[in-house]
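I am hoping you can look over what I have pasted underneath with an eye to the fold:
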Amino acid sequence: MNESLFILKGTIVYSKNQSELEIYEKSYLVCNNGVVEGIYKTLPEHLEKHLVIDYKDAILMPGITDLHIHAPQYAFRGFGMDMELLDWLEAYTFPEENKYHSLEYAKKAYESFVKNMKHSVTTRACVFATVHEQSTVLLMDLLEQSGLCTYVGKVNMDRNCPDYLKEETDNSVQSTLTWLNKVKEKEYKNTKPILTPRFIPSCSDDLMRQLGEIQKEYNLSVQSHLSENPEEVTWVKELCPWSENYGDAYYQFGLFGDKEKEPCKTVMAHCIYSDKNEVELMKKQGVFVAHCPESNSNLSSGIAPIRMYLEQGLQVGLGSDVAGGTTENMFRAMAHAIQVSKLRWRLQDSRWKPLGMEEAFYMATKGGGAFFGKVGSLEPGYEFDVLVIDDAELNREQLSIKQRLERIIYLADDRHIKAKYVKGRKLF
């Protein structure tokens, strides 16, 4: 579809705020040059001659953002779910990621990943690759061709990992610069690089310092992991005794959110064990939290206090965290977020009530989408990322729109996507 102005008709649903939905039944959603122009119950006269695609009783909702997913782990999702994080990395993740030094293997694996992501409910994603520069560029090429909007990062690791993945510090820095220059030459429209130190335990102080310098020079966003596992948090205290907390270890190198003079948009996955000072630092620096509920359950990591984060004004989105999570289906991430919050409330801390469907939907759309700018809503001025969900086979008769959305969150998958638009371009 190449029309600069076109109109979709259906039942429109998006988040008014964290706890309320905005619903327009049998209404018109107008796209103008890749941006939402407006929603109308009846088309104004000046729009009547433009193309209208009538999706009948389908739900039109904002595209969904996956704030945290590991592309090279897609091939072994569902394995090792009886292990905790650090052991799981050694047994499954690192051996698999080593295979991506082969472009032949990477091409086969990444083509499968990108194909499934394109046909999933995800329209935007923050993606980890591996330490391998060439296969990371290959992944970015494939994602660019898919039409999805993504941040993709070449991983950095120079300590506390197997020798077959460990980079020499200077080589890690040089490989990162080479990768960034290659990406710049390609002039992608939808795919951006993002600095990706795997996590503090795998990155020396020297490497982090140099990555901080690269961030300033290239004005890059940053993604990493934070306070996911109790053993990991203890380990960081031993490795960085000079830091106040795990987040402060990133902050000291300029890799933890916006600063007054050097902008640095940052997303940190998990944040389960963040203490009061770490939370305050995240809030001050505008760090995004990528909540990954299924992964945190599968790897016995714990349950993040997301209700508290939302009420304290942190920016929170959702992540599938494949392969800690078993699926790229972000409807499942929404359902898991609700379910684990109930367990946290019942078993751990009754001060913070469980999340509802509205909060989960908000985090998956507008909350996570904000990392990409004006994304994740169907308000005028937002980028036109739209999912058309046909829930006819989910027995929608006699249900309210809110009930239909809740059922979609718990039961729908890629089979129910009738159409998918990213920045006003129809992917299928």
In short: DSSP finds 13 helices and 16 strands in the chain. The chain has a mean pLDDT of 97.
